[in-house]
Amino acid sequence: MIKRIIIGLALAVLAVLAGVGCTDATMDSYRQFGSSAEMKCWSGSTLIVHAKSTGKVLNETNSDGYRARWFVIYLNQDISPWQGIKKGDTLPGGISGNCLKFYTDLKD
Fold this sequence. Notes:
Number of strands: 6
Helix content: 10-25%
Largest sheet: 6 strands, antiparallel
Structural class: alpha+beta
Radius of gyration: 22 Å
């Protein structure tokens, strides 16, 4: 009798757990921790910077910014205040604003 109750409870728990699934987005949010990312940031329709992190990207506390060591793929030299930085440089820094971020090492 006790054995049947335990088996019944185990099957009920398995049924409940099977019905609670994670979406792809939820799973990816866990997979991305410690991953490098590629970022593009714009001012209006003008691309300002395109960079790839060399490692983990950290979110700034209470901000829309991201910190990492960035490999600069593109920097708009016409509007950039950083005239000493050029394409191909790798340097630490923060990026924020109108940016799009993809975790490139999580490709399926």
